[in-house]
Amino acid sequence: EVQLVESGGGLIQPGGSLRLSCAASGFTVSNSYMSWIRQAPGKGLEWVSIIYSGGVTQYADSVRGRFTISRDKSNNTLYLQMNSLRAEDTAVYYCATDGSGYLSFDYWGQGVLVTVSS
Amino acid sequence: SYELTQPLSVSVALGQTARITCGGSNIESKNVHWYQQKPGQAPVLVIYRDSDRPSGIPDRFSGSNSGNTATLIISGVQAGDEADYYCQVSRGVVFGGGTKLTVL
Lengths: 118, 104
Prior knowledge:
The complex is a heterodimer.
Chain A lengths: L2 E5 L2 E3 L5 E8 L8 E6 L5 E7 L5 E3 L7 E6 L4 E6 L8 E7 L9 E2 L3 E5 L2
Parallel strand pairs in A: 2-11
Antiparallel strand pairs in A: 1-3, 3-8, 4-5, 4-9, 5-6, 7-8, 9-10, 9-11
Chain B lengths: L8 E4 L5 E6 L8 E6 L6 E4 L13 E6 L2 E6 L8 E7 L4 E2 L3 E5 L1
Parallel strand pairs in B: 1-9
Antiparallel strand pairs in B: 2-6, 3-4, 3-7, 5-6, 7-8, 7-9
């Protein structure tokens, strides 16, 4: 059974850094494409970043240069390093992955809240 | 960048058919996926690749994609279908703004 469990969220001041983790089970992170998707309070879904099985990464314009997606094969975990955080980065962050092979997001974690505020 | 347009809200009577649209330039050339999200929960994939259903999704959910519009169709709407629905395309991951489905 595929499971994704995010951690690392919390309250952080503007300009600060935070690293989110997404522990995966039931599949191999390095063999799949995985993404971070966020949802600001009361708003819609916003794609943040993706890492493909081959290691290629992509970012939304809103986070490029500030966020870095990575993965660790040894502990089957996805990461999102978030630097220079802004108030508008406040959101629930989900990790998600494919199951269909068509770049859909079949599996989602429960989400972790990041609040950027002074 | 590619944009997807959804109506903010759709209302449908219990037992009737709901249609939620997702507009995008030549969207028929892309794979469109649909998600259901209930308050406080993570999204759930209900349709992938325009019209395929993941395991466990009722056949009341279907989809189509033609021209500049993809459509999620929910037949025999139930109270439990009340939720936010989002479309998504794959190439350059993009989500629509979401549609709140209200069951009357």
